[in-house]
Structures are given as structure tokens and as C-alpha cells.
């Protein structure tokens, strides 16, 4: 698909009217920024940002065996999710590597909504159709839905101002990783509270024909409270500060959930109706990967990779693909270099942190160099920049 063939969000004309710079992303033409990446980032941290996430893929799994089908298809225990709640999980290949990370909502006892990343949605749809064959469950493509997010410390205040008085408590009462039907500005929505920025916030799933009215109402109500429309660039810097993985960077067909520090999402203890351990796609590989005794054999003679946070101690930020090296060994091209540096990892995401005021990065490094406080360096275009391993997330909101 070329850029000219990218799908358009139901809000495309709104973005153009607001002067957004548009970019091709996951097969969609989406706003990269409206004015300033930095201003949009700070608005979300201090007040609120309005995001169009209509490029995300929604897939319904419906039927008497929908829960059992998802338990087989995904690594999580979806049958244990209560109605109105959501769970972060993944779909993996037979070898345990990540096809996509997902949020799954249980909307009714026999109805789930799977939310996939834009570029992976067609693959996830196909995998779910194949993996649920034989179960009394149907898989329905609902990617036509529009999805609008309001993220930031004033998000709840903005939403409460757009619902009827008797629905205000419904908004305030939405728990983290939960969803509830709410009429917002006269528009019927599924209001969820998950987020990808490290701030409090809501996602509003809405039929595409009502997206423009809802977007305009949110923008009108939120602007006096500091809300601004925000694009993909600020969304990426916000999620990086929050230490959240991005598919194609921290997650891919080259890593398992354990590599990414997300082993908690793998439910090896889930059981079937007969009480026996439940088989699911990728189980054998993940069970093997989880075994400490098998680790050395699995990884050969090299230490296992670990995803870590890196705090930049200099001014130049690391970027995706840059090598992480042992400090004190000159990088190729530096004066005095007499050999190759000892490479111990690779950066997956990196940028200056607008909130913290210094560069930050996520990287996979050898386990021997993954302890917080470890001093390392990154080869930034032929010159080494000092970094320090730090715990994740880089940023955590005060409340």
C-alpha cells in the first residue's frame, strides 16, 4: 500500500482543517503533529491531549465459546476477565515470539473486543479466525470504528462536563482497564480507561458517522481547560517516558514476552474445563523459555537479552538501532580507536525527554549489563555517549 492508498480516519478533514502535518502510519494517513511536538507533549502532562486513534484495529469475538477460544488463541487467561473489564495480553507465534500486543475488553459474557495495532490488525484478524476454528465463536472485523482518546490530568473533568448529571459518577467510577457505555455530548460511546501516555485518560469507541461531532465537542469543552489536539509524535515521546513498549521496536517476531520483561502476561497456569493445563498457541516454547534451567541452552553461550531503560548522561539522544557498548572502548572512527567496541545491546527507542530534561532510551542488553546503575555508552553516529541503566518507567505520574 502506497501513501496515496492509505486509509483515512473519519476525522481526516478535521485534522486537515486544524493544520496537522499528516504522515503514513500502519496503512493509515494520520496526524503527526498539529503545531509543536513539545507543546503537545507538555499539554498532556499538565492538562490534556486529544488523540485520534482510529487507526487501531477492533475485532469482536462472539459466541458461547468466545472465552475458551481466546484462551487458546492468546497467552492470557481471558476467561477470567470480568464483564466490563479489560486485559493487556499478546498473540504469539508457535515459537513464542510476539505477533502483536493487544488490549482485550469483555463487553458481555459471550462478547469480547480485541484491539490490535494498526499495521498488525489484518494479521491478528487472520490468526484469530484460524485459531478459533472449531470453537462456537465468531470473529468479526470492526476496524471501521472510530477511536478518540483524551489523556491527561484534566481528562476526567473534561468528560464529566459532557455527560448528563446522572452519568457523571459513571465516568468517575470507570476503573483502570475497564469500560462502560456512556453517552458523551449526545453520542453513544464505549468509554474505556486504559491509556498509553503514563497519564490518566479515556478512550472513546464510537461509530464513524458520529466521530466528528464527538471530536468537536471534546475540543470545544477541553480547550478552556488546556486541552490541545495531539499527534503521533507526542504520543510516542509520552509512551517512551512511561516505559511502554511499541510494536516494531520493543516487541517483534524476534522477541518473546519474557525478553521484553512482560512475562507476567503469559499465563502458563490456565486450565481447561477438565482442570488440566490448557494448551494455547506458543505454550510449549514459552514454557521452555520460562525455565531457568533451559535458559543457557535456549540462548546458547550468550547471556539472555533484557529490556532496560537508559538515562542519557550527555546531550545527544540515542535512537533506535544504535549500539549499546561497554564504556571506555572508542567507537569506530573516534580518535585513538584501535578496534571494535564491545557491543552489549541495541537501542529500540530513544529521544530527548521533554518532561525529565535529558535523553532516555529503551534497549535490549545482555543480562550481565542490565543491573540498574550500570554505566554503559551508546554509539551515536561514531561517537560514544554515556548512559546509565535505570528502572522503568522513566516517568510516573504523582497520583
Automatic annotation (TrEMBL):
E.C. code: 2.1.2.10
Q: What EC class does the entry list?
A: transferase
What reaction does this enzyme carry out catalytically?
A: N(6)-[(R)-S(8)-aminomethyldihydrolipoyl]-L-lysyl-[protein] + (6S)-5,6,7,8-tetrahydrofolate = N(6)-[(R)-dihydrolipoyl]-L-lysyl-[protein] + (6R)-5,10-methylene-5,6,7,8-tetrahydrofolate + NH4(+)
**Which cellular components does GO assign to this protein?**
cytosol; glycine cleavage complex
The record's section on InterPro entries has: GcvT, GcvT/YgfZ/DmdA, GcvT/YgfZ_C, GcvT_bac, GcvT_C, GCVT_N, TrmE/GcvT-like
Q: Which UniProt keywords are listed?
A: Aminotransferase, Methyltransferase, Transferase
Domain named GCVT N-terminal is located at 11-270
The record's Gene Ontology biological-process terms are: glycine decarboxylation via glycine cleavage system; methylation
For this protein, the record's Pfam families field holds: GCV_T, GCV_T_C
Q: Where does substrate bind?
A: 203
Report the leader peptide range.
none
Annotated Aminomethyltransferase C-terminal domain ranges read: 305-395
Record-level Gene Ontology MF annotations: aminomethyltransferase activity; methyltransferase activity; transaminase activity
Q: PANTHER family, from UniProt?
A: AMINOMETHYLTRANSFERASE, AMINOMETHYLTRANSFERASE, MITOCHONDRIAL
Give the protein family.
Answer: Belongs to the GcvT family.
What is the protein's known function?
The glycine cleavage system catalyzes the degradation of glycine.
Describe, as the record does, how this protein assembles with itself and its partners: The glycine cleavage system is composed of four proteins: P, T, L and H.
Q: What is this protein called?
A: Aminomethyltransferase
Tell me what gene encodes this.
gcvT
